[in-house]
Amino acid sequence: DAGITQSPRHKVTETGTPVTLRCHQTENHRYMYWYRQDPGHGLRLIHYSYGVKDTDKGEVSDGYSVSRSKTEDFLLTLESATSSQTSVYFCAISSIQGQGRHNEQFFGPGTRLTVL
Amino acid sequence: GQSLEQPSEVTAVEGAIVQINCTYQTSGFYGLSWYQQHDGGAPTFLSYNALDGLEETGRFSSFLSRSDSYGYLLLQELQMKDSASYFCAVDAGNMLTFGGGTRLMVKP
């Protein structure tokens, strides 16, 4: 299994508070992703990173920010949590091959976030 | 942008064969992936098709037709442990776009 961990695994917070989720990898993969998963919506990309300090927005980036200061860590921050951000958050990593571009992603165990 | 359509739910009997279809619209395309997710777990990679045709891996096969923007996942000799959600995902560059998922229920 790919070495990818997420912390915390569960969190309950109140509306308006800041929240930071951490994703840590030991695979030295270049690409890292943050998804949220809600019933009926599958996995939706929030932000992704293609290198240290290089990030880009995904499909549902509003209300979220990310940072990647080291290859192994990718942080997702909710500056002011809202109830609509209650979800399961998955981090994923990938080493996209140059030829063939096989984007196989390995997922972390997920973080269940509840915003009251 | 990208959009993917797959059935929300499929039910089949243990030992049977089931096919999960996926149609997509995308502005860029490198390949189609399939992922499996058991309840409470993380998605795990099953297959990737970059070219037209059938790819076989054990009991699972995946098919792609780029001209029809269509693919499917074929599961043979169904087992109870195959009960899970299955997601198709378009590889359009640096990111994947996932379909809403198909929940497969395998009955004895």
Characterise the protein shown here.
The complex is a heterodimer of chains A (116) and B (108). The mean pLDDT of chain A is 92. In chain A, the strands form two sheets. In chain A, strands 2, 4, 5, 6, 9, 10 and 11 form a seven-stranded mixed beta sheet that branches. With 116 residues, chain A is mainly β. Helices cover 0% and strands 57% of the residues of chain A. Chain B is mostly beta strands. Chain B has strands at residues 3-5, 9-13, 18-25, 31-37, 44-49, 53-57, 60-65, 70-75, 84-91, 96-98, 102-107. In chain B, the strands form two sheets. In chain B, strands 2, 4, 5, 9, 10 and 11 form a six-stranded mixed beta sheet that branches. Chain B has a five-stranded antiparallel beta sheet with strand order 1-3-8-7-6, with no helix packed on it. Chain B is globular. Chain B starts with a strand and ends with a strand. The mean pLDDT of chain B is 95. At the A-B interface, β4, β5 and β10 of A face β5, β9 and β10 of B.
User: Tally of extended strands of chain A?
Assistant: 11
Q: What structural class do helix, strand and pairing data of chain B support?
A: mainly beta
| Fraction of helical residues of chain A | under 10%
Tally of helical runs of chain A: 0
> H/E series of chain B, N to C?
EEEEEEEEEEE
Segments of chain B where pLDDT lies below 50 for 5+ residues? Answer: none
User: Strand-and-helix sequence of chain A, N→C?
Assistant: EEEEEEEEEEE
What's the gyration radius of chain B in Å? 13 Å
What's the multimeric state? heterodimer
Largest interface: A-B, 27 and 22 residues
Measured on Cα atoms, how large is the radius of gyration of chain A? Answer: 14 Å
